[in-house]
Write a structure and sequence with these properties.
The protein is an alpha/beta fold and about 500 residues long. The chain has 15 helices and 19 strands. Strand 4, helix 6 and strand 5 form a beta-alpha-beta unit. The N terminus is likely disordered.
Length: about 500
């Protein structure tokens, strides 16, 4: 492939990074599934071998606990091994063969062979709150590599040393396993990231972060002379709806679990429940206060996150009529032990549904951190209409029902809820996103910019496109489309004469 020329205004270093990725794509897209799968497994093993070193760096840079970080690093390894299994299986290529058929019911049909093809170099903007699982070697990187796309990671400034070290280790592991040099590269500055969104060699971008920054980058991707897909996860408040019967049956356990879900990792999770909707007259203060009082202070990821959290909490508390159920604490440290960092405990407030409507964005906008709103809805409220009006796009929506609530009415409610979230939970809590084939981690705007998922094996599809070859000689076909199927991938065949029985 001839390298695509870059516009003259682009920085030379950025152009070199993009060109190297484009050159790596030529080899990576032709790499046999077994080689790519082995490379992903080797990358996972390398992370495991260096776990102590990496966790120590991550603790220092993010303030997250050792237990949380070790769990996240294990998740990252499992993610890579899961995608290695997907590569080796080959089903993700969705290979379809239509045999030439002179008797096809609509007229003679040529020989048609379709597969999914990697889009090209992918730019991945790493997230702050998951320094392993949504960063250099995280889900977006794993999905793109599985698809056969080289990856350029824009490191998050919240964990620069960790990003550099993970990139060194994983890039070396991939190359040692037989993948092309520069299959994985790292850039660190904001200007480099923006410039790469516009570089013609980059064919897709993934982002996890704020709605404001995500919209700016998505606009850049769309304004290119050749617009590219931009897969952004931008914001979600993840409402939890609770019926009166559910509260009557298990109020204590339910409210304690709510506090735990809001408070985990200092609420710095994209699936944190920002709103709990309960019937008017519910007594919840004592249970929430008792559980929240047991939550120790936790450091926010970085000073920028802390500033945003303080601003949003102040805006919410300034709304006339907001009632504080449990006031959280905030401790700022300018000493040598943690210069510029902030430690917090969770804050819970309550409002009636009508006040939430009147307050608008001051309450409805996401608060990234350990803050949540209990919303009291009146008897007979149409919860489907409430969600459509106030919470139109989320990663998750959760419904807690009583053991014997009317199935028909709740099934209709679920149908409405599914229009407004990518994952619907019946019971349970949205924090904790399983890395599995059936997971959907994406939702209607503003949760994400597309209907794709950034978690689970379906995430690979964001970096693939369909290509059909018509009447091509065997020697010119890609391996999965040849009659001898050297990669051994599953294929769907439409045989000659089938249409006569339709």
């Amino acid at each position: 492939m001839t390298a695509t020329a870059a516009p003259e205004h682009l920085d030379r270093t950025v152009d070199d990074v993009a060109r190297r990725a484009q050159e790596a794509f030529d080899g990576l897209s032709r790499t046999a599934p077994g080689v790519r799968a082995a490379a992903l497994r080797d990358a996972a093993a390398t992370l495991a071998d260096h776990a102590d070193e990496l966790v120590a760096i991550a603790q220092d840079e993010t303030g997250l606990s050792e237990a949380r970080l070790r769990g996240e690093l294990k998740r990252t390894q499992v993610q890579l091994r899961l995608f290695a299994h997907v590569v080796a299986d080959g089903t993700y290529l969705d290979v379809r063969l239509d045999e030439a058929d002179p008797d096809f019911v609509l007229g003679p049909r040529p020989d048609l062979r379709r597969t999914l093809w990697p889009v090209g170099p992918v730019l991945n903007f790493a997230a702050s709150n998951f320094p392993f699982a949504f960063s250099v070697a995280g889900g977006d990187t794993a999905a793109a590599l599985t698809a056969g796309c080289p990856v350029i990671v824009k490191a998050h400034p919240g964990h620069p040393r960790l990003s550099e070290r993970v990139a060194q280790l994983v890039a070396a592991a991939l190359q040692a396993a037989g993948l092309p040099e520069f299959t994985l590269q790292l850039v660190t500055s904001q200007d480099e990231g923006v410039a790469l969104v516009e570089h013609p060699a980059v064919r897709a971008a993934a982002f996890t972060g704020s709605q404001r920054v995500g919209q700016l980058l998505a606009a850049r991707a769309a304004a290119r002379p050749d617009p590219i897909p931009f897969f952004g996860e931008l914001g979600s408040v993840n409402p939890v709806l609770v019926t009166e019967q559910a509260l009557q049956e298990r109020a204590g356990d339910l409210l304690a679990a709510y506090v735990a879900s809001v408070s985990g990792s200092a609420g710095q999770l994209c699936t944190k429940p920002g709103f709990l909707l309960v019937p008017e007259g519910t007594e919840y203060d004592d249970a929430v206060v008792a559980a929240a009082a047991q939550v120790p202070e936790h450091r926010l990821l970085n000073p920028s996150i802390a500033d945003g959290y303080a601003r949003r909490v102040a805006e919410a508390l300034a709304v006339d009529g907001v009632r504080v159920v449990h006031p959280g604490s905030s401790r700022h440290d300018d000493s040598g032990a943690g210069p510029g960092q902030t430690w917090v405990t969770p804050t819970f407030v309550a409002v009636p549904l009508d006040l939430l409507r009147r307050a608008g964005d001051a309450l409805l906008d996401e608060v990234f951190g350990p803050f949540s709103v209990v919303v009291e809805y009146p008897e007979g409220a149409d919860l489907a209409a409430v969600v459509a009006e106030l919470f139109p796009g989320n990663l998750t929506l959760t419904l807690h029902l009583g053991e014997h609530e009317a199935a028909e009415a709740q099934a209709a409610l679920l149908t409405h809820l599914a229009r407004h979230a990518g994952r619907i939970l019946l019971g349970g809590w949205p924090t904790g996103v399983a890395v599995t084939p059936a997971m959907q981690h994406g939702g209607p705007w503003p949760a994400t910019t597309t209907d794709g998922t950034s978690v689970g094996t379906a995430a690979i599809g964001r970096f693939l496109r369909g290509v059909t070859f018509q009447d091509a000689p065997q020697e010119l076909l890609p391996p999965p489309l040849r009659d001898d199927n050297p990669w051994g991938v599953p294929r769907t065949v439409a045989a000659r004469g089938d249409s006569l029985g339709w």
